[in-house]
Write a structure and sequence with these properties.
Distance between the termini of chain A: 22 Å
Radius of gyration of chain A: 13 Å
Largest interface: A-B, 21 and 21 residues
Shape of chain A: globular
Largest sheet of chain A: 3 strands, antiparallel
Strand order of the largest sheet of chain A: 1-3-2
Oligomer: homodimer
Order of helices and strands of chain A: HHEHEEHH
């Protein structure tokens, strides 16, 4: 539980989750809130989200496909993701 | 939002919130999950929770009274606290 909350407690990571809320995205299409962020930082953000069980990151062609593990999260923590995603990004 | 999630993303802090879920507690009555934790660490945990707007910490006699800011949290982040508190502590 705390690992998931921690993964979502960073603005850049939460922004990624918001993007994936509309559906899976290729890694290259997933934009960072700060476009100057190095690629290694982007990989690290994805790693934290993946290890916490928030996203799936699978090989697809020459890239990676990212998706939100909504069903797993809803099963483990009912209502948590919905309550977080319904709050406006600036709040 | 991320500040609240961060405050709740630590097992010791989340445990304090669970205790305050039953009602306000004096600082001295609020137990830590790890009883060997120094008093300064306890104060710091309370500070993080207070600064994130999760708890209120007011002087009461010679001690401090801690309470959960449930109404404020429910107004800002509907459903968030409930979804977090209904998950078993060990999850």
């Amino acid at each position: 539980m705390t690992q998931v909350l921690f993964a979502l407690s960073d603005p850049a990571r939460l922004d990624i989750v918001r993007q994936l809320d509309s559906g899976p995205l290729e890694m290259a299409q997933c934009c960072l809130s700060d476009p100057t962020m190095p690629k290694s930082t982007k990989s690290h953000l994805m790693k934290v989200l993946r290890e916490a069980g928030v996203i799936r990151n699978v090989a697809k062609g020459r890239g990676r496909l990212l998706s939100l593990r909504r069903d797993d999260l809803d099963a483990r923590f009912p209502g948590l993701l919905a309550s977080i995603l319904k709050v406006a990004p600036e709040a």
